[in-house]
Amino acid sequence: MENIFYGPVFSRRFGYSLGIDLTPYKICSFDCIYCQLGKTSTKTTDVKRYVDIDFENFKSELKRIIDGTSRIDYITFAGSGEPTLSSDLNDLIRITKQLTSIPVIVLTNGSGFSSDSIIDAVSISDAVKISIDASDEAAFKKINKPHRSITFASFVEGIKKFFSKYEGKILIEIMLLKGLNDSDESFENFKTLFDEIPFFYDKVKKIHLNNPFRLPESYGLLKSSDKQTEKFMSLLPGKTEIIKISKGHGNAIKHIHEEDLLAKILDIINRRPSSAKDISQSLNININESIKMLTYLINEDKVYYDIKGKEKLFFLKR
Questions:
Q1: CB contact set of 63 (below 8 Å; sequence gap of 6+)
Q2: Rounded to 5 degrees, what are φ and ψ at 106?
Q3: Can you tell me the distance from the alpha carbon of 275 to that of 281, in angstroms, rounded to the nearest whole number?
C-alpha cells in the first residue's frame, strides 16, 4: 500500500489534521486556476480504485499514527486529487470511525454530488467542506475549469441533492479572485444561489473566504480587495469568516516530527532550488505535507519562491 497518510499538519481551518490521500497527484474533476498543487494532469469523473489499499493494513497504520501522535483534531480525506473519485472512500471512512472518535471530514469540490453513490460514500462523515467558487456558468468555467461533462447547472443540482440528504456539519469555502467572482453582481448571484439550496442556512456552519496565498503567479490572478471581501461578509453576517495566513504563526509547528521535517526541507533548498514535488519525492512525504511545511517557512521569512518556466521553485532566503 502506498503511503496515503500525511501529517498531522496545521490547518488554518481545522487545527491539526491527519490527511488521507486516496487519489494520486493530480487526478481531479476540476482544474482550478488557484490550486496549490498546480495543473490537473488527469481530468476525470471516473470513480474507481486509484490506489491499492489493503483495509487491514490501513486500519493498523491508522491506529499506529493515532497512538503515536499527541494531537489530532480532524482526520481529513483530501489529498492530491478529488477524494470522492475513490471507490474506497465509504469503506475507509467507516473503518476510521470504528477505530476512533476523532471527527472525520471530507474536503471536496462537490462535483460528484449528482451521483447518489458518492453522496452515500460521504454520508457517514462528521463534516464535509465544499468549495463553491462560482455563482454562474462563465465564472465556473474560468475558475474551476471542470471536466467537459460537468456544467454549472449540474454542479448546482448535485449540491442541492447533497444538502437535502446529508445530516452532518457542512462548511463552504470560496476563493475570492479579483475580476472573476468578486463583483457586486457576483455577490448577489451567490446570495441567490444560497437561497435556492435547501436548508443552506440551517446546515452550513461556516463560509470560509479564502485568499489565493499559494496562487501560481503565472496565471496573473490577484487577491480580491479587503473592501470587496468585507462586502461579501455583509451578505451573510455571522456565517462568514476570512481565512488569513499571518507571519509567525506561533502554533503552526509543534511536533518533533515537523521540526525535523522543516530542517530537512531547508537543507534540500539550501543545496538547490526545489519544487514542492521535488521535496515530497526526496523525503518520501505526501506533496500536501510538503506544501504545508513550505507555506510555514514562507510565513517565517526563511524561504521564498519564484516561477521558472512552468515550475514554482522554492529558494532559501539569505
A1: 99
A2: -110, 125
A3: 10
CATH 1.20.120.80 assigned to 5-244: no
Say which CATH topology domain 252-318 has. Answer: Arc Repressor Mutant, subunit A (1.10.10)
Categorize the per-residue pLDDT at 88 as very low, low, confident or very high, splitting at 50, 70 and 90: very high
Neighbours of 178 (CB within 10 A): 14
156 Cβ neighbours under 8 A, 6+ residues apart: 193, 196, 197
Residue type, 80: S
Which residues in the chain are classed under CATH 3.20.20.70? 5-244
- Cell 511536533 belongs to 255
Q: Where are the beta strands (DSSP E) in the chain?
A: 5-11, 15-21, 27-28, 42-43, 74-78, 104-108, 127-131, 169-175, 204-210, 240-243, 303-308, 311-316
CB atoms near residue 3 (< 10 Å): 11
The larger pLDDT score, comparing residue 301 to residue 204, is at: 204
d(CA 240, CA 232): 8
pTM for this predicted structure: 0.82
| Positions of CATH 1.10.10.10 in the chain | 252-318
Signed CA dihedral, 308, 314, 317, 318: sign only: negative
120 vs 244, more confident: 120
Closest alpha carbon to 208 in 243, 163, 233: 243
Return the closest-CA partner of residue 59 out of 7, 17, 94, 21: 94
